[in-house]
TrEMBL record, chain A:
The lineage of its organism: Eukaryota, Metazoa, Ecdysozoa, Arthropoda, Hexapoda. PANTHER family: GLUCOSE REPRESSIBLE PROTEIN MAK10 (PTHR21373), N-ALPHA-ACETYLTRANSFERASE 35, NATC AUXILIARY SUBUNIT (PTHR21373:SF0). Residues 86-185 form the NAA35-like N-terminal domain. The gene is Dgri\GH21912. Residues 614-629 have a biased composition (Basic residues). Residues 1-40, 320-348, 600-629 are annotated as: Disordered. This is Protein MAK10 homolog. Keywords: Cytoplasm. It is found in: Cytoplasm.
Automatic annotation (TrEMBL), chain B:
It comes from Drosophila grimshawi (Hawaiian fruit fly). It holds the Pfam family LSM. Belongs to the snRNP Sm proteins family. Residues 1-25 are annotated as: Disordered. The gene is Dgri\GH10685. Residues 1-14 have a biased composition (Polar residues). This is GH10685.
Amino acid sequence: MHGTYVGEQPTDFQAATAAAAAAARERESNSNEPDEWSLSECGFADNDVQRAIRGGSAAEDITQYPIHGWVDVTQEFHDACAELLPGELAQDMLFGLFEAMSAIEIMDPKMDVGMGFDKFDLPPPSFEAAVAMGAIKLDGLEPAELIGIFDALFACLVSWLEGNSMDQVLFTCLYLHAPSQIQDKPLRCFCIAVRNLIVVIKNIIILAAVNEEEDFQLYGNSALLGAEKAQPSTIAGLLKDVEDELVRKCKQLPEAAENQCLMAVVHRLRFMRHLFQAIYQVELMVGASSAEEAVNEIYKNLNVASELLPLIKRTIDRGTQPVEGSEAPNPMGFSPRIHDRSQPPTFPRSIKIRERPASYQFLEEMVARFKYACKVIRYKDYYSALNFFIEYSRKSGHCILSRSVLQSLFSSSIRLAHGKQSMKQFLRHSVMVFNSPPVLNPKHPVSSDPKVVQHLETFFRYCINMNTFNQFIRLCGFNRARQRDKLAHLIENFDPLQVDAARLDSLMNQLANERAMEGNESHATALKHSTYFSTWVLYNCFRAMLIYLMSGFELELYAVHEFLYIYWYPYEFLVGFLVSALTRTENLLLAQEEYAEHQSRIQSNSGGGGSGSKNRKAAKPKKNKKQQRPYRQEIVYYRALLSLCGGMYKAMGALTKDGRVRLPMSKFDNEEIRYNRRFSPFVPLTSPPPVSYAEFRNIRDHMMQNSAEDLYSYAAKYFDQARNVLESIQNPEQEILDLLQIARTNFVVMNVLGRGHQKEVKRQPEFDFSKHSYFPIIKIK
Amino acid sequence: MSDLSISGTQVQVQPLTPPPPSPPGRWPFRITTNAPQMLDANLTPGRRKLQKWLGRVLRIVITDGRVLVGFFNCTDRDANIVLSMCAEYLVEGQEPRLLGNVMVAKKHIVSLNIDEPRASTVL
């Protein structure tokens, strides 16, 4: 309703409704007719139902009215309204905020689909009508016309993928309504391909199930959704035939200009063929026997498609162009409002179909994203796959099809990694890769110890039942805003897993004692000091927590005065935990290697050095080097993050102390509530234990005892530290360079402020998150 | 959020702006509803009329010629009207399109009709 109702007074519907309810309740005791009120007061029945009960008939039909006859009350009504005060409402007793918010504003160009129709208007032409009127050609289309239609269809496809209803974009193209009736072969094949492509894309997105209503409209005109006769598998052949035919025709033509036009048509058909093939093969991946082969095939198609795009972009102007001011994306073949009146009333009316160059730009980027997604089959364990998904989501999170493609590629890839692999095997393998506990090493004799087998079995079955790990990866496929929501629930689920992992570790230690008593040294050593599983679970939990907390910056959820505790938490706890989890993992790996070396030395000493042990000795050092510090890079990265969080925390403290942070008016403010709300998903966890607001306040109060100048210099120190750490990274990626720039700039800013720059002007600095979504560059204006 | 905050130099509570002159009546938010308990002899005639019409079927002809028929749900001083279970007719008598809740601003209203027995036919 966009505030049309809001008068000068702070009238809001809920308050008004509440006031009415209170008034009624107050009088209820005096009232002789409480029955009717109590019915509506109960409030749970839906509005229509209530009205039906009130009206005494089942589901009233508005079209039956008038029952009595219309009485004109225009003037009377306006006069009566004029008696109301500004902001006063006359409202039905069932009218509430929900009704107010869900109302469509009539004559609003964005909401009112019916707007602009006139009883004198002809209905928008259907396919048959357009053919009868001669408005669309079915045969002998000029190359320019073909190019125009193809480009417009690609633009519609892109607009559909961007979240519009397919009825309002793709199916405004009349040619798509009955491709089989088109005589012109290139156009017919292209339209058949589009119809099939729609179905295939829809299937992929449904199967991946990472879409939300704001991403994508699944439903459309069901009559048009079924692909016509042609099967998706025949599409490539159909298109190929037409291409060949056109190329032959092209060769017979003497004129170069016409030639080029025809080739432009061929390029579009070819692009369609390869794009279709790639996407169709993604759909087929689930049943493919070898993921590698299938992905190679997809990759090949994508490569050709991406090579064709520059050629296509260069020839956009050869096609017919949309008429200025018209809603149709192409002068011929489109009937923009054909489905308007069959859409649900709440659908947006005004659809902006993408411009052609922008659409091809989108397709080009999408093809590149698909190619990148193909790399996922390299990642066969949880840790690296999760890293890939997080990265992918950051880069390609805005495109629903790219996200869905990644999901289907990954799920078919891990399932097929080593034959048909179950989730359990995948997780076992993942822990193995992460910190290689000897109990999971099939070569180690302890792995066949029946008790060990049993405990492991129980643990992994529990992991799978909880579905937490699986969910973490899937969740990265959702759009960025939804991810945060879902992460909050995911974090909760980590708690029972932590408990179970800790139990497993202690069982292993117990078992170590038992085996030691039995004199089985090698088993005992392998089982002793086990923290493998709890470290693994904790590490993943910490990561989820960090992403959750920091995503609030990206989504712009935090007010500036909240930054202080948001940065404080990772600085004081989270990032430190991550570093220590990774360090512990590295140490475990190192200890194991030392032990293995020690063992082999004993063996070679006693076994008299055959050729086998020589080989082993030669191979060992090489493996060692690689294995030594597998998490080094990540640890360094988190160290830098730690310093940056520390810097931001102290900086926010300094700025607050200096009076440069706008604070909420205290009568509207309750920091404790905000603090608890921000960290609420962490509360159910046993580890790390939740930090109460009181504890935080103590720590902050302690920090705030320093002078602003001191705090500025502490902050500067942290930023300097971060810079040092970041500079030590070799071959830095773009992200590292960006962080480096942030650390450097903030270092300077802190120093400047610490020296009393602009001491008198207590203006809040600007926090510019454009370089990195977690950390801003602090700018003084 | 920013409009709730004041700059760091002046982190004292601002003096309250004097409350707007309270409207006649007992409610800070003045509303008229058709809840039976609100039947109040002291209502102005216009309010009483609106109260009577609430929940009835209203027909609105709007500036582009469409006719909207729905249950009269809410209005205000500016005669913005909310209808529920609304049917939209391009041509009256032809198949309507069902819209659900709609809001019509006064500037688009051409005429208003209420479905009620004419004075002569009142039982």
